[in-house]
Amino acid sequence: MNRQEFIRHSSFLFMASQFHIPSISETNWAGNLTYSAKKIVRPTSIEELRKEVLAAKQPKALGSKHSFNTIANTTDTLISTSKLDKLLSIDRQKMWVWVEAGIKYGTLGLLLDQEGFALHNLASLPHISVAGACATATHGSGDKNGNLSSAVRGLEILKADGTLERWEQGNPDFNGVVVNLGALGIVTKMALAIQPTFEVSQFVFENLSMNQLKDHFDEVYQEGYSVSMFTHWENKNINQLWIKKRSNAKNIHPVNRYFGATAATAHLHPIKINSPINCTDQMGVVGPWYERLPHFKMGFTPSNGAELQSEYFVPRKYAYQAIMAIEAIHSIFLPYLFVSEIRSIAADELWLSPAYQQDMIAIHFTWKPDSKNVMNVLPLIEAALDPFEVKPHWGKLFTMSPQKLQSRYPKFKDFQALAKRLDPKGQWRNDFLNRYL
Q: Is the model's pLDDT at 170 over the cut of 70?
């Protein structure tokens, strides 16, 4: 399916895109969206960045282009932070690292490890930019691990008038500016919490019955520092269980069976028919945190993925019920699915984080590039999850109404007021933000 057909059928999220003839050929990572901007610029300094912001009428920040919807689109100027990608300083007293907004997690991980430090967690792909990931509350997994934005301790934003404003943890609005959806300005740099470096071993088990989750869900997710389940939703089966353990864990030694699932005998890709060559090492091989917490290697540069993605968050207390609600309707979406991943995220205090003040479970869908059918089944999935206070990932495909989405965030009105104060003329708005804010 070509990109124009995708945009035409995805009216909920791409409603304005089809009315603009793009004047650049820049696409997002997946290739499902061609940006509508007149131009894209890549400043290399704050001075260049300020000049571009002041010259544009409706600028938008662009990170590593891993959003699947139009949250970062504009018909004016896209301002990429890809060349603002340096590690600036390490504060060993506060245990913070200051970085430029465009640095990628894989790059940062290597640099931090060389200095003896680590971040608390990483997402599946280490190729995403720090500011973009935090702006949309992107996450990894782990019962005690908040999403990536929960590590933010300070940030600086360039506003539409060209001035810089800085926040650190403790500022009254700090919890509002971190997960900001690009609605407040361009993040220029961020401070992230760090800790001493650590090593991780990764173990994979196959064929865990979903029936085991009814009574053992907590035990499964407490088994490792980071735990993910992959399923194709057939036969009530979890196809793969990935358990990542810190090397100093008491129960680091592998077992052959786990709640009926059997230990893998070779490295696996989450989609088993695919080669695992680009996946991070498994089979209990010890490695540094930044080479084990992601599912894929930094040295592997993902091509424009022939896939679409959606993800939905439900409170941890509804985990088993929500999973079974999806299982009950799997036949309607199975033909369009590559694989699903189920992860856990710890609660935080960030206003627009899906994990605001409650532990969450994320149910992720990696779709085949069949936009018409995918967009048709998303409302059915959202309806099945609606009784469980579902929220969608800000940067992926969804069809939830603005009214319902806003109602799921207790601090939404506070964020609207904050956005109005920091961007009174609405210069950072686009069709996505106008719809959902």
A: yes
